[in-house]
């Protein structure tokens, strides 16, 4: 089957090309995290720019089937259960029938996969390329090159990205990492950073407790987030600065280590453990603090730093990955990922607090980061790949790219792609595209006009 009808030929009133985008990832609401927020806010801004956006993810508990979100964002929660860390089990071909139906029903023109950990995104991009669709991919994480898990993941990424039209990374460090891991030419990778909804994350100094310096930690409590460093840093900071109190939000396997440290050092009155914090409550926690502490061991961008800065907090962070690119030097204190270095950085930040103006910091973040800017730049990527030479979509050209992935892996990738092609042909015969009902589009323009009228 060829790609769905050329809906990419639609134009908006200002002459821009209208795209029909399928966002695919295992990570979406009701789960919370940077990838989930990125997909949601990007989708909302693309809807406001006149495009059609549909999200494909797996079922979360009893949330399955088709759901509608704000401004007509349609979400397919397909019946696949998470296997590890919210990622589905990699079956490769079992998702083909449902992905094909969604692509045809929604008349999709561009598939946009998110996150290298997402098996669903990789499978949807593979099927989309076999069906003739244009495909983009956003990498939100950094990977190493030496451990077994990274070697395996990098090979999978090399296979998938060999056939995507364009990749997006959230920082220049992430772009370099992705190019090295996947072998993708740098000119086919764009850097489009994350952003923050500054209308939500506003300062409120009235929430701060007088005579106390409150340090906020909002993070998943896992090894990658440097929680073992926090276990060493918190007692040292509390000993050096008696006015300091910690508020820690988040959950994960390393929570036990923090609670044991608190009991061992007698810091129950100075270290408050909130447990998991819904994203809707993040601002209420951040506005209680003066300093935001990020102890990550690896980070492609860290959107939590932006949210904290938008709330007027001075940030202390480890100098890892793309973190140094997020904020200018006068808004963040960086340290090497060592306990002694972090202790000194926090002490330095405490001395700088009298010079920090939360309202001015919020204004600077608002001027630097905008989801509307992210959406406009992503839209240009879509227009670029929709206008790409269709010769690259031919099966033989695709197989040549897979074959170049390695002497053994290349042959395996070709076999996977050929079987996918055969299965697609069988589905074309078994359930022709003409027999699949098309879904009506949500009347976004009328809805937005109605919402403005209510306002």
From TrEMBL:
It is an enzyme of class 2 (transferase). The keyword Glycosyltransferase applies. GO terms for biological process: GPI anchor biosynthetic process. Residues 58-147 form the PIGA GPI anchor biosynthesis domain. Pfam families: Glycos_transf_1, PIGA. Residues 207-347 form the Glycosyl transferase family domain. GO terms for cellular component: glycosylphosphatidylinositol-N-acetylglucosaminyltransferase (GPI-GnT) complex. Pathway: Glycolipid biosynthesis; glycosylphosphatidylinositol-anchor biosynthesis. InterPro entries: Glyco_trans_1 (IPR001296), PIG-A/GPI3 (IPR039507), PIGA_GPI_anchor_biosynthesis (IPR013234). It comes from the Eukaryota. It comes from Klebsormidium nitens. Keywords: Glycosyltransferase, GPI-anchor biosynthesis, Transferase. GO terms for molecular function: phosphatidylinositol N-acetylglucosaminyltransferase activity. This is phosphatidylinositol N-acetylglucosaminyltransferase. Its EC number is 2.4.1.198.
